[in-house]
Amino acid sequence: MYRDFKDYEGAKILMSKALASDENNFGLDHPNTANSYSNMALILKDLGDNKGAKTLLSKAIDSNEKNFGFDHPATSKSYFNLATVIGDMGDFDEAKYYLRSL
What we know:
Elements: H1 8-26, H2 31-46, H3 50-68, H4 73-88, H5 92-100
């Protein structure tokens, strides 16, 4: 909801708590944690922290590939989001690489 109202700092605070809870309760490779990594990454992207977003999306991808495989929609969505972040960072060749792998 905070993100919908463009209160990215508020969203970051709440998502940080949710992510910490998921990591503690489910572990680093659980699908819920991967979803929280992705959600936090999008908030960081909104705040202009593309490097942080890239790191979290890489974690989400690793988890999703372990849990669901390469062809699962959750994995594909994480790859798409990563390509978007990398494109925003100006590395269009790397972004295209991730888009081609979908």
